[in-house]
Design a protein that fits this description.
Elements: H1 2-13, E1 53-56, E2 71-75, E3 81-86
Length: about 90
């Protein structure tokens, strides 16, 4: 009986991690900016985009909120645009 109680208590201690938001297909129009990948970050200055945009550099603190309409420009150590995604 004691073993059964111990198993029940241990089973309650293991919680599943919260599910990640589903990856939606280009909800923010990131594909429109795909030509910027591999270019220097200054290329962003030539493209005006009104709306939710984040430019994320190495070491930047970034909130974990997921916004399907927001475009994220991930900049590498070399100041080059590495990836562009929604969220």
């Amino acid at each position: 009986m004691k073993r059964l109680m111990a198993l029940i208590v241990l089973a309650g201690c293991t919680a599943a991690p919260p599910p990640l938001p589903p990856q939606l297909e280009d909800t923010c129009g990131a594909a429109n900016f795909a030509g910027l990948i591999g270019q220097d970050v200054t290329a962003l200055e030539t493209r005006l985009h009104l709306g939710m945009v984040r430019v994320i550099r190495p070491g930047d603190l970034v909130t974990q909120d997921f916004r399907p309409g927001r475009i994220n420009f991930m900049i590498g150590e070399d100041n080059v645009i590495g990836t562009i995604n929604c969220g």
